[in-house]
Amino acid sequence: MSSELYDAIEYLADEKGIDREILYEALDAALVSAYKKNFNSRTNVRVELNQDEGMKVFARLEVVDEVMDDQLEISLEEAKEIDPSYEVEDVVEKEVTPRNFGRIAAQAAKQVVTQRVREAERGVIYNDFADRVEDIMTGKIQRKDQRFMYVHLGKLEGKLPFNEIMPNESYDIHDRIKVYVTRVENTSKGPQVYVSRTHPGLLKRLFEMEVPEIYEGIVEIRSVAREAGDRSKISVFAEDPEIDPVGACVGQRGQRVQTIVDELRGEKIDIVQWSEDPVVYISNALSPSQVIDVLVDEEDNATTVIVPDHQLSLAIGKRGQNARLAAKLTGWKIDIKSESEARESGILDTEEDTFDLE
């Protein structure tokens, strides 16, 4: 093998981060395959690569008393001419390098090195993007087809399904967009990156980017419930009682949360304080509605929430959205009843049964 090929392999190993042994093993296999294909050989052969002496092909032949197949066997008499110590069933290596093998070998080497470089580059790209799963990336809309909008993310296009775009937004080619990486797949066509604008993780990451207290771990996001493009709820908690987690997320004059609302094209966001007490937590989650009482059935993971009559529609929300999001946020089943309905059904018997959750 020429020194140029050696130099090329060393360069690729350093530049592309490919293990040298992998390249040499792949090259050896390719040269053996090229020899058998081009010289109609069934022989078990070995290719020796040497920077100074070049490339040699050796046939591996079994020593036998009587040769039945000269591509696979060699007589004991002929083997002893090579080395008197050979015996039957030994294996003899005999050089069979063709005169014009260099040109064929060069083509085979080029193909296998190109393939390995492509595979290595795909591997590097896959690993880079696999580390970005559940993270936000910014890209530019590059093209569209019937199923996806393709977002240029640097080395790859992110596939944004049309059902992962919020109903209140539309994009044109070359528009810049923030997307949430949902998964990365390593396929025969190379790495495939799937992104979303509707995933609850997008909202969580936006708060982490906008609120330093969340990024630093002072404030913790406990749960997110989202109906993308319309309304979301997020529960937050701070270990330090001196910290107001809701206020930190809202920001001065509402600037922090407004930045996120603007990014999500006007999606309404309720920020509520998490509590380990389900009565308090569910009451908070039903914001902006007031709550009179929360009756908890821990066995069925269900609650009955009683609200003032005039607050019933607010607690339930348009098409049940407020109650639905509160249930997703808290993980509890929520049945909402008005105060008068609760009294009629005997859930609240007297005025004394009513208490202020605040």
UniProtKB/TrEMBL annotation:
Signal peptide: none annotated. It is found in: Cytoplasm. HAMAP family: NusA_B. Keywords: Cytoplasm, RNA-binding, Transcription, Transcription antitermination, Transcription regulation, Transcription termination. Belongs to the NusA family. Participates in both transcription termination and antitermination. GO terms for cellular component: cytosol. GO terms for molecular function: DNA-binding transcription factor activity; RNA binding. Residues 134-198 form the S1 motif domain. This is Transcription termination/antitermination protein NusA. Monomer. Binds directly to the core enzyme of the DNA-dependent RNA polymerase and to nascent RNA. GO terms for biological process: DNA-templated transcription termination; transcription antitermination. InterPro entries: KH_dom, KH_dom-like_a/b, KH_NusA_2nd, KH_sf_prok-type, NA-bd_OB-fold, NusA_N_sf, S1_domain, TF_NusA. PROSITE patterns: KH_TYPE_1, S1. NCBIfam families: NusA.
